[in-house]
Amino acid sequence: MTKILTGKYDTAERAQNAFNDLINAGFDREKVFLDRETSHLKVMTPNDAEREAREILDRHGPLEVFQREA
Fold first, then answer.
1. 42 by DSSP, 3-state: which?
2. Can you tell me whether residue 21 is helix, strand or coil?
3. Which residue among 2, 8, 14, 48 is least packed, with the fewest CB closer than 10 Å?
């Protein structure tokens, strides 16, 4: 099953850094979405990669992380 994790950041720079880390960790660029205006970062991830994605999002100090089923 696929989940969508959304990190809400206080700056676009933090969101961009998390985006870069996700890509560098091997997450598919087509499944990672950055909205610089709202500083939200979404990543679509299968269950087996959810923990790694959440750790990367958390590393950059999000205000919140939301999760939902895709």
1. strand
2. helix
3. 48
Alpha-carbon gap, residue 58 to 70, rounded angstroms = 21
Please state the length of the chain: 70
Coil, strand or helix at 68: strand
Find out whether 61 and 53 touch, Cβ atoms under 8 Å: no
Give the Cβ contact number of residue 70 at 10 Å.
10
Task: Fill in the DSSP letter of residue 51.
Answer: H
Other Cβ atoms less than 10 A from the Cβ of 44: the count is: 17
**Tens of pLDDT along 20-70?**
999 999 999 999 999 999 999 999 999 999 999 999 999 999 999 999 998
